[in-house]
Amino acid sequence: MPLVKGNTVVADEFVHLAEDAPLPADGAVLLSAERFLKDPEAALARNGKENVKTGVIWPNNRDVDDLLPYLDRLAVIALVFPIFRDGRAYSQARLLRERHAFKGELRATGQVLRDQFMFMLRAGFDAFEVKKDKDAQVFADVAHRFSVFYQPTGDGRVTAFHRRLMHLPESVKS
Amino acid sequence: MYAYDELDRTIVNERVSEFRDQVARRLSGELTEDEFKSLRLMNGVYLQLHAYMLRIAIPYGTLSSKQMRALAHVARKYDRGYGHFTTRQNIQYNWIKLAELPDALSDLAEVGIHGMQTSGNCIRNVTADQWAGVAPGEVEDPRIWAEILRQYSTLHPEFSFLPRKFKFAITASEHDRAAIKVHDIGLRIHKNAQGETGFEVLVGGGLGRTPFIGKTINEFVGQRDILSYVEAILRVYNQYGRRDNIYKARIKILVHELGIEKFKQEVEEEWAQMRDGALALQDAEIEDIRSRFFYPKYDNLSDTPDELKKALQNPNFEAWYKNSIAPHKQPGYAIVTLSLKPVGGPPGDATAEQMDEIADLAEKYSFGEIRVGHEQNLALPHVAKRDLPALWRALDKIGVATPNVNLVSDIIACPGLDYCSLANARSIPIAQELTRRFANPDTANLIGRLHINISGCINACGHHHVGHIGILGVEKNGEEFYQITIGGRADENAALGHLVGPAVPYDQVADVIEDIVEAYLALRQRPQELFVDAVKRLGVEPFKERVYATR
Ligand code: HEM
Ligand code: SF4
Q1: What's this model's pTM, rounded to 2 decimal places?
Q2: Nearest-CA neighbor of B348 among B376, B379, B324?
Q3: Which residues pair with residue B335 across a beta bridge?
Q4: Which residues contact A105 (CB under 8 A, 6 or more apart)?
Q5: Nearest in space to B141 (alpha carbons), one of B270, B294, B281
Q6: Among candidate residues A119, A53, A54, A43, the one with its CA nearest the CA of residue A81
Q7: What is the nearest CA distance from B218 to chain A, expressed in angstroms?
Q8: Which of A43, A78, B362, B546 is 20 to 30 Å apart from A124, CA to CA?
């Protein structure tokens, strides 16, 4: 599955660690929520060493509040879209970014198709494990399909409301 | 009227271009039908019995003449020359080809209308009182708030993949014409003891398989807070609404399972953390939206013009006047309802010619504005009373002056088995038969206000639960049967109807309805006692006896 970050396809430095695989002393890993929560310190203590980054794959039916103590030490939180139609992770993403000021990588995983990129970007995702190669290739185009937005979200785009009030020219693109 | 500006138009156009790309990917096989399904639904496209069906939003039921002509154009160019106005201030076309859908949408986009969020598990087209802005005694024009909600909910990045569809309805009148108690969120604009304007928020109403009347979650939410409050509700629903079972996924089930107290607590906790954030509405924002609504420059006219007095001598005009004309906040003007329920016709259908003609008449007599109501009728909201006789003659010529508004033949019906792939039974032919049975205006007037609602299956698109008489199509051993309920209503005293007895076969429905109506005529205390009120007073029993005594 190609990973898109910063509008381009990049190599994924994170290894999805199998449940029973030993925790490596080096390297960037993504752990399941269960495994991470069993011993968060063991996983995070590797931080501080170079090239050691820890991420967690967080299921969409678990309260993100459980992650709050670790937010500033997690490199990645991967949220899950088990099916296209299941949008719980959009709420989790906004809570993590906007309420809890998570600064690391917020990654969308699962059924991630081009038709959701815009929503995901606006909810605060900045990395995408894209299901179809072709969708990954057109990421930048699709991400710019819309130029006007109604709702304020943490992505900081100026809303239509505010553009009108500030009398910004109609052509301003955010 | 609200006029879309360049920003609103840009969003509509960008959405059409996105959908054009999605249709192309579907046609080339790049998208499977399953992948395409959620995408097309969010643009109002269903796959129906005969073809793709396109549902177009008419936000809060307000249309300009220009927009109405565009609807006629789509009916003519891409469909079979007619469209179907629905109970949710939408219009549906039943025969559009997939490959032509983007063109149809693009033609509509030129006049600022679209199919965005008329279907799918997102926030649907926001509906409002169809007399908004003209009804006497209204607290304020609820369409300002419907428009704020429309903008807020359009392409919402967090709430476009909810557990299930989500419907808002809003009213600012004491008499509820928007059926707010049977919506996921119902909003009633009112003033508190301090004289401030705000919202009573109801949640968890809805029909379908498990009907519920909405419950008040908050008596008064201020204007500044309304968006953050509904966002809190939606966020709780998005996270905790059931996704394991499509029949239990609506917010009404969550509210029911948690109980309104616990649900309210969850919402208020969420709200407390965000109410002062970016969604807090500034006065300037509200005023900006308000300033985009244009109101006619009314003249000072007589409230009892000679033209009207004279015309009222004509019994045909008088009959129409009596039930099609409603008082207007401006003296000398009236709200005129156009019946889309001719005797023997499918409720809610209009031909392209009728739509064009109505657009012309609206320009001539109603400042170019038309309304669509949930009863599947249209209205001209600002007609000078002196013009009523001339307007009546013109409406009569095109078949939309049947004097039956709010009477027994003003039937609400879903498409049923004639179009709908989910139907168990026909709806339209039942409606047609009933309009023939009750075609005599004298009988209809004797009966008075009586709403019959028909749905072809448990999904309740015809709102049968809240019909004074509700008719629900069910299937028994491959045959069409109908359950009949009485005592439902969709207004400020909303209630669900009660079953009269065992379901009856297709060919007995009209007889049973006649029996019920006759029982009512015999049992009512005085002619002013409405059918629903009589049912409330008497219960179901006497009606049941009458119906089943002879069967
Ligand atoms: C012909 C294609 C149609 C299909 C496939 C369809 C499908 C459905 C389904 C599946 C539901 C149940 C949803 C639920 O309760 O969760 C529903 C409800 C509803 N539909 Fe339709 N419908 C169609 C046409 C219409 C029409 C023509 C109208 C208006 C005349 C309409 C208005 C409604 C309304 C008001 C509800 C009630 C929802 C509620 O309050 O719970 N639909 N429809
Ligand atoms: S009530 Fe049933 S039959 Fe009627 S339109 Fe809705 S889904 Fe179709």
Answers
A1: 0.95
A2: B376
A3: B326
A4: A5, A55, A75, A76, A77, A126, A127
A5: B294
A6: A119
A7: 23
A8: A43
Asked whether the ipTM of the predicted complex exceeds the cut of 0.90, the reply is yes
Whether A52 has a pLDDT exceeding 60, the answer reads: yes
Residue A51, pLDDT score: 76
Q: Min CA distance, B63 vs chain A (Å)?
A: 22
Question: What's CA B459's distance to the chain center, in Å?
Answer: 15
Written as one letter, the residue type at A136 is: A
The pLDDT-based confidence of A127 (bands split at 50, 70, 90) is very high
Chain B touched by A147 (CB under 8 Å): yes
Chain A residues with beta carbon closer than 8 angstroms to that of B10: 147-148, 170
Q: How far is the CA of B422 from the centre of ligand 1 (A)?
A: 10
Q: What angle do CA B136, B141, B143 make, to 5 degrees?
A: 135
As given in the structure block, the two tokens for residue B404 are 């039956």
Question: Is the Cβ–Cβ distance between A40 and A68 less than 8 Å?
Answer: no
Q: Give me the pLDDT at residue A168, please.
A: 57
The answer to whether B535 and B543 have CB atoms below 8 angstroms apart is yes
Predicted confidence (pLDDT) per residue in B19-46, tens digit: 999 999 999 999 988 889 989 999 999 9
DSSP classification of residue B123: B
A170: contact with B, CB 8 A cutoff? yes
| Residues of chain B predicted below pLDDT 50 | none
Residue B168 has phi, psi (to 5 degrees) of -105, 140
Contact across the interface for A119 and B162, Cβ inside 8 Å: no
Which amino acid is present at A23? L
Say which ligand is closest to the CA of B186.
Answer: 1
How far apart are alpha carbons B403 and B444 in whole angstroms?
Answer: 10
Shortest CA distance to B180 belongs to which of B146, B227, B136? B146
> Across the interface, do A119 and B6 touch by the CB < 8 Å criterion?
no
CA distance B249 to B241: 6
CA of B171 to the centre of ligand 2 (A): 26
Give the number of A-B residue pairs with CB atoms closer than 8 Å. Answer: 95
SS3 B66: helix
Instruction: Give A8-12 contacts, CB < 8 A, sequence gap 24+.
Output: A8/A139, A8/A140, A9/A136, A9/A137, A9/A139, A12/A129
Q: What is the DSSP string of B404-446?
A: -TTSTT--EE--GGGT-TT-SS-SHHHHHHHHHHT--HHHHHH
* Residue from B54, B461, B466 whose mutation best tests the ligand 1 pocket (most atoms within 8 A of CB): B461
pLDDT for residue A174 is more than 60:
no
B320 backbone dihedrals φ, ψ, rounded to 5°: -65, -45
Q: Provide φ and ψ at B181, rounded to 5°.
A: -80, -5
